Amino acid sequence: MRAPLICREIINHQRYPIDLADDPRRQTAVEQVRAELATDGCAVIRDFFSEAGLAALVDEAEARKPQAYYSPSKYNNVYLNDGNPDLPPDHPLNVRMPRNNGFVTSDLFGEETSARRLYYWEPLKLFLADCLGKDELYIYEDPVSNMIVNVGKPGQEFNWHFDTNEFTITMLLQPASSGGIFEYIPGLRSADDEHYADVRRVLGGDRARVRQLELDAGDLQFFLGRYSLHRVTQNTGDSDRLVLIMSFTDAPGMIGSKERVMNLYGKMTEEHERRQVFTDGLAD
Question: Does 179 map to a domain?
Answer without folding.
Answer: yes
